[in-house]
Amino acid sequence: MSVKPPEACETMTDVRAGVDAVDRELVALLVRRFGYMDAAARIKADRVAVRDEARKAEVLANVMREATAAGLVPHRIESVWNELVEQSIAYEFEVWDRLRAS
């Protein structure tokens, strides 16, 4: 079944197929994003550098600007991105520790 754009959906089956397709795309993008966390953990020589509050603020500001320009509700996107960044930091700590455990 082909996925319809949101404005062409006529049934909940159409909507659900579209949401499922977007979720698959988001997972693929998250795999790529977390790959960059792997790289950061490999590159950063100091564990303290893993949590960078200035960079976190920059990422959130960038996303809020993009979300606003795209017509999204910024506070909803900020909440999602804050959690994404926190989970990314936690993951990077795990990878950093694992790479240096040997």
Automatic annotation (TrEMBL):
PROSITE patterns: CHORISMATE_MUT_2. Gene3D superfamilies: Chorismate mutase. The keyword Protease does not apply. It is an enzyme of class 5 (isomerase). Pfam families: CM_2. GO terms for molecular function: chorismate mutase activity. The keyword Isomerase applies. Residues 6-96 form the Chorismate mutase domain. Its EC number is 5.4.99.5. SUPFAM superfamilies: Chorismate mutase II. It comes from the Bacteria. Transmembrane segments: none annotated. InterPro entries: Chorismate_II_sf, Chorismate_mutase-related, CM_dom_sf, CM_II_prokaryot, Isochorismate_pyruvate-lyase. Keywords: Isomerase. This is chorismate mutase.
